[in-house]
Structures are given as C-alpha cells and as structure tokens.
Amino acid sequence: MAELAAQPTVLVLDDEKNIRHAIQIALEQEGMHVIAAHDVASAARVLDERVVDLMVLDIRLGEIDGLAFFRKLQSEGSAVPTIFISGHATLAEAAQAMKVGGFDFLEKPFSAEKISVVARRCLEHASLQQRLRAMQEREGMGEIVGDSPLIQRLIADALKVADTQASVLITGESGTGKELVANMIHANSSRRDAPMVKVNCSAIPENLIESELFGHERGAFTGAHAPRRGMFETAHRGVLFLDEVADLPLGAQAKILRALQHGEIQKLGAERTLRVDVRVISATHKDLKRCVADGTFREDLYYRLNVVPLRVPSLRERRRDIPLLVNFIVSRLCAKHNLRAKEVDAEAMHELEQYSWPGNVRELQNLLERVLIMSGDRITVLDLPEEVLAVDDPADAKPMGQSSLKDCRDQAERDLILATLKQHAGNISRTALDLHVRRPYLHRRMSALGISKKDYFGG
Ligand SMILES: Nc1ncnc2c1ncn2[C@@H]1O[C@H](COP(=O)(O)OP(=O)(O)OP(=O)(O)O)[C@@H](O)[C@H]1O
To answer: Which UniProt keywords apply (predicted)?
Structure first.
C-alpha cells in the first residue's frame, strides 16, 4: 500500500452541518485530521494558512458552486486532491467534476465507510503521484521508476560512474532493469551523442558472433559476399552494451579482451587492424565469478569488464517501489492500448506487493498488460491470476493484538466471513463468490484470522 503522511489533513467544505459533522467523524476515525468549513471564504482561508492533503467538496454550495471554487483554485495553482459530493447534482455536473480533475464523485447520502475508503484511496493516489513527480524531477534517472533506498543507491552509483571511461558490469536477476541502467549510464556520459550498440550475446549463434562483433571482409568465410562492419566499429566513440555477457563463447572472449587492452580490432579476413575507442558496459543475470571458476569465462576478461560492479536489486527486495511501478506501468499501458485511465484498488495492490515476482519488473509489466485489457475501470483481486494470490503472507499471520483499528477490522472481517460460510454450509467457493474475492485469497484470510472448520460447522 502507498505510504501516507503520518496524519493527513482533510478539508471538508459543505454548507450542511450534519453532513460536515458525519464526514468529520468518519475520517477522524481513520486517523485523519479534519477541518470543516461551511463556506468558500473560510475554506479559502484554511487553504491559505496550511497544507491540506485532501478536500471533500460539495458541488452545490449556495453562493458559488464547488466546481467553480475548484477551478479557481486550479487557476491559482493551489488545487488539492478533491472528492466531490452532492445530493442534487445532475449527471452532467458529476461528469464535470471528474472532467475538471476531481478524484471521485459521491452522491449523498453515502455511508461513513464509503467516504473513508474513497478518502484513503485518494490520499494514497496523491501520495504515489507525488513520489512519481519527485522521482521524475531527479536528474538523469531515465525511465527507471523507484524511490526505495536500494534503487536510490543504485542510481547514485550509476551516476557517479557514468561520466568516467570505466567498464561497468551490471548484475541482477532477469527483468530487474539492467538494460535501463545501461541506458542511463550512456545517457549521462560524455559519449551520449555517440551510439550505444547493444549485443545480446546469448541470441547470436556461436559461429556468427565474432563476425557480428568485429565485422568481416568480403570472402572471409562462405557466405561473406560483402564486407561488413562489426558492432565494435559501429560503437566507435560510443558504448558497446554486452547483454548476457556470460554466454559469450571463449573464442570471442579472447578477441574482446584484446580489443579492450589494445584499443584495436581485426575484421575477420582482414590483414590490418583498426583502432577503436569503445567503452564497454556488460550485464548478466548469472554469477560471472562462478563462470570463471567453472572455466566458461576468462578470468582476465572478467576483471577487465568488472571495473565497477553495479547490482540491480530484485523487485521483492524493494517492495516499496511496487505501487509506484504499478501506477507508472498502468498509465503507460492505458495510453498504449487507448484505454480509459484505470486504477488498481487497494486490496489488489496489497496482493501485488506481497507476491514474490521471480520475473521481476518484466513479469509485473506482462501481468498488468494481461489484466488491464480484460478488467473494468478498476483492477481488483478478482482480476489477478491465481499464482499471484496463492502465496503466504507472513504479515497476515501475525496474532491479533488488543484494540487497534486493525483488530476491529479483522474482527468485522472474521464475523462477515463466518456468517457467509455458515450461510453457504461451509462451501468455500460460494462464500468467495458472495464476498467478491478469489478462493485462494479467502483461504489465506481465513487462516490469518484463525477461522477453522469447527467455527462454521459448530463442531
Ligand atoms: N525500475 C524500472 N522502472 C521502470 N521500468 C522498468 C524498471 N525495471 C525494469 N523495467 C522494465 O522491465 C522490463 C525489463 O527490463 P530490462 O530489459 O532492463 O531487464 P534486464 O534486467 O535487462 O532483463 P534480462 O536480464 O532478462 O535482459 C523492461 O520493459 C523495462 O522497461
């Protein structure tokens, strides 16, 4: 879940005292600091005097309508995330509220639970947007999304090494973003205007790799009908990115070492050598040190490539970045597929944060793409595949404490699950259906809440 300010401040502007009061009680129970205002003038004063994280704004306010007030704030650059409410608004006004940038629209009367849930969602959304903005303002990050300490450290190290000539070896599991880090180093180096040539060493057949890297003269081997430049030559004055470097055959390793040591290459079938000025960045998900021990990777080349090692953390080492990444990826994918903006609800986000992501950001991206196309406006746990839900969440297994808000929620959840189970004579599938959750999720909640068969069969 996104992190919220310790105690967010909410401004409630409604001319009906009872409504103000009801909202205030509901949100204060959620731990929010609520300031109630009965007219635009006093609301404007509050906004002038302090930082407000969220506004709950009535559309029909008497002297000036809420939409006009919101637009005025927008034009002054002082609008805050806002939930519009109204008892008599027309459909057109409700649509307008969303169009001008309201986070949500609630029709009165609404329950305390409804406003609490929407307010929390709005605050979480705003906090994520703020983190994304702060991140994007930071120089040189390129497309790398994340503000966890591990990612910040990685970016700081990558920026430090970017404008040197040092070889960099980027390690990390598959799909963690090693190529993005290489792009970032190139973009922040003095070689940024020269090309970065990418070689996927595991995708080129062994008999072609040397010609791909160093080029060949006409007639150098059967099928070499015309001379060809190699990637080293194309990368002259720029960067050669050797992806999956552990898969380089030993013959090519020897030639790369020579090229790096002497700054010279020799095309296949050529007599003379060619001077090249190339910086090498390499990446691998394998343990290259181990490959050296196994004899599949040259030790001298290993040291040559590993002048500066950078390790990209796996996604499960930086779960804090998951909501940021999810938001970023979802909005990018919505734009790509021409879909209306969609959001991931809190429960589904919680599940995404708990999953272990063996395929890292790439897996997250692929999953979201699949889910996004099939889901409605909001992505819920019902849209998530079983593999994401069927993991144990140690946090859920914590014993219940005494009297926190969480305990109250747990108790209410336990009562509801038990009542529904009893209603369906213990049938888990029907209970899950009734409660709009998936079976594995229900099982996990049942075990976290200590619900066993004897509780609903009365045995
Ligand atoms: N921090 C991140 N922010 C945004 N997108 C990311 C991030 N990390 C990875 N991605 C995205 O995830 C996908 C995989 O990233 P990338 O190809 O850089 O991973 P990799 O570590 O090089 O994988 P492999 O080892 O399989 O080559 C890409 O589409 C990339 O844009």
So the answer is: ATP-binding, Nucleotide-binding, Phosphoprotein, Transcription, Transcription regulation
